[in-house]
Design a protein that fits this description.
The chain is an all-beta fold and about 110 residues long. The chain contains no helices and eleven strands.
Length: about 110
């Protein structure tokens, strides 16, 4: 599976961005798709994930502001981000997990200015 992420950019605090990740060269059925982020000097952290059945997870700091969605037919996973804060600044990575296999997309930079 190859993953291509897009949608990052520079936005002012309180603004919105939508990240998208498209999968190719493989199926994403029976997988967990998610978004991680890594800020400078920090470890990569899970931001949100969604199972094939639609069960979602959000880290506490983004609950109520971020929404993850997926389209199995189109093999995409999206992250709608609203009310962005400077602390959301990071490189965001999409991720697909199937059993013991993990695939990563290239990162997309999100910068939130205060």
């Amino acid at each position: 599976v190859q993953l291509q992420a897009s949608g990052g950019g520079l936005v002012q605090a309180g603004g919105s961005l939508r990240l998208s990740c498209a999968a190719s060269r493989g199926t994403v059925s029976s997988t967990v798709m998610g978004w991680y982020r890594q800020a400078p000097g920090n470890q990569r952290e899970l931001v949100a994930s969604i199972t094939s059945g639609g069960t979602t997870y959000y880290t506490d700091s983004v609950k109520g502001r971020f929404t993850i969605s997926r389209d199995i037919r189109e093999k995409t996973v999206n992250l709608q981000m609203i009310n962005l804060k400077p602390e959301d600044t990071a490189v965001y990575y999409c991720n697909v997990k199937r059993g013991t296999l993990t695939y990563w997309g290239q990162g997309t930079l999100v910068t939130v200015s205060s």
